[in-house]
Amino acid sequence: MEQGSATLGWSKSLLFASGDFACNLYWQSITFYLLFFYTDTLGLSAAMAGLITMVASIWDGLSGLVIGIAADRRSARTFVRLNAVPLALSFVLIYLPVPLSGAWLAGFALIGHMLFRTLYVAVNVPYAALTVRIAPDSASRSRIAGLRMILGASAALIVAVGTQACIGVAPRIGYAIAAAAFGAVGTMLLLIVGGMDGGASAAPAEPVRFSIGNVLAAIAGNRAFACVNLGICGAVASMAVLTRAIPYYFKYEVGDVAAGSTALAMMSVAGVIAIPVWMACAARFGHRAQWQISAALAGVALVGLLVLRPTTALPAQALFVLYQGGGQGLFFGFWALIPDVVEHGGRPNAPRMDVLLFAIAALLQKVTMGVAVAIFGALLSAAGYVARDVQPPHVLRALALLAAALPLAALIVASVAMLRFPRSLGSARS
Question: Which helix (H) or strand (E) holds 225?
Answer without folding.
Answer: helix 223-248
